[in-house]
Amino acid sequence: MDSTNNLVQLIKYTKKYDPYLSTFYLPPDKLQFSCYPLEKINDLNLSKETIHVLLMNEDIPVGYFALETGEKVLKYTKNQNARLLTAFSINDAFQGNGFAKKGLQLLPHFVKKNVKNVDEIVLGVNKKNTAAINLYKKTGFVDHHKTFLGPIGEQHIMHLDISIED
Predict the structure, then answer these.
(1) How large is the C-alpha radius of gyration of the chain?
(2) Fewer beta carbons below 10 Å: N end or C end of the chain?
(3) 74-96 pLDDT, tens per residue?
(4) Which residues are in the N-acetyltransferase domain (predicted)?
(5) What pTM does this model have?
């Protein structure tokens, strides 16, 4: 594991990071499963309560994901206190340094601190994206073997329990 991970943190997105996010690159094999951060941030169809999260290494955003709310979440769980993690990605220039794993390990604390009354994070991950499935499992997500058909194939629904008490 890279020693720089001591300086890794999750923060809420602000526009001051747009210059970094505009240079974010995902190769086609990764882009098929995600989208660029600014594309997601500027998506007018997202709920206003969506929280955009940056995975920071020191002062540089190396990764991104959204925590969505609303009707979309109900496709993944019946839990009214869940958030949907979408568009998780690591800038290609920073791949292979353990940032994705560290960011997901920080997720429960970030949610408890920044999102009221949320006790579960859910996500859909493409069946073909085995690297992501393995990463999510290593960081506490559980696959209850429920799936749905997404735009590019079967998606596994994975759950991360976030107890509200500390």
Answers:
(1) 15
(2) C
(3) 889 999 999 999 999 999 999 99
(4) 1-163
(5) 0.90
